[in-house]
Amino acid sequence: MKQVLVVYYSQSGQLTHVTKTLTAPLREACVVDYLELKPLKPFPFPWDFLTFMGTFPEAVALTPCPLAPFSLPEKHYDLVILAYQPWFLSPSIPMTSFLTSDYAKKVLFNTPVITLIGCRNMWIMAQEKMKTLLQNLGAKVIDNIVLVDQGNAFATFITTPRWMMSGKKDALWGIFPHAGISEAEIAKSVRFGRAIKAGLASDKEKSFLPLCEGLGAVEVNQKLINSEKIGTKSFHIWGKCIQKFSKKEEAKRKVFILFYTLFLILMILTVVPLNMLLQSILRKLNKARVLKEKAFYERPSGNGQHRMEEFLPNA
Ligand SMILES: Cc1cc2nc3c(=O)[nH]c(=O)nc-3n(C[C@H](O)[C@H](O)[C@H](O)COP(=O)(O)O)c2cc1C
Asked: 34, 51, 173, 308: which has the fewest Cβ within 10 Å?
């Protein structure tokens, strides 16, 4: 029987729900070991605003936090699934921390890995960081599956932070969509589990080939590529300064974070709209380059849908 390890972290339970739904078909044919990551000092949920923002310097710098000890058999896994969420355009701190563990170093070396992301809608730069971390561990990323929150970018700019700060997912004022990934999307993620099961049955993972292509695993929103790049640079520069002059628990960290938040709001109200206008013109002028970039970030699974009928009939 094939051996599969599934590593995940979730605050609200959303990514746990996605992970368990997606991997259900695998449990019919493989031995599936689940490892839920638990920070020794749990991150709050719901968050208060300053703690939420105050987490960005460590998240962006990939600074690990201590995790509760876990014990798993030191066996060979045919496949590892890493389910994570981006925090400030970087992998969330618990997942980054797992990747620094001795266990991860052993279990991921030369092993096929599927990354599974559940987030608002900005995951591209987090996945680039994840790819580098995994490459450094000698792991081979064979698929990337992304599920994003329901609603457009404007709606989720309201609904996701509201959910993070209050825990409320309901339809705000009856006009906004529910926060988070829709139940229908989560239910449909079972197609990936079915395809992974079929891929493992034919030893496809041994050649490090994608198991989830043709199933609409990722869709890069090209309008977000440059915003993510600019955001990552800004977080990196400011995060480094804030880390240099204040520690996570220090009171003065709150002052720096407040100052940065004010700067961010000012940017969102002034520079961001102008930049969006400029970017939409540039995208029209550089269509070919943008499409190439989109295809790059959608690798290795791609956004094709040609196997949907096979793994999700009557959808
Ligand atoms: C501190 C923090 C930062 C976040 N940053 C991002 C982000 O950069 N991009 C994004 O799409 N979602 C972001 N989110 C939303 C998460 O990716 C995720 O959708 C949400 O936390 C729910 O995941 P859960 O399963 O852990 O509850 C962030 C959430 C938190 C708590």
From this structure: 173
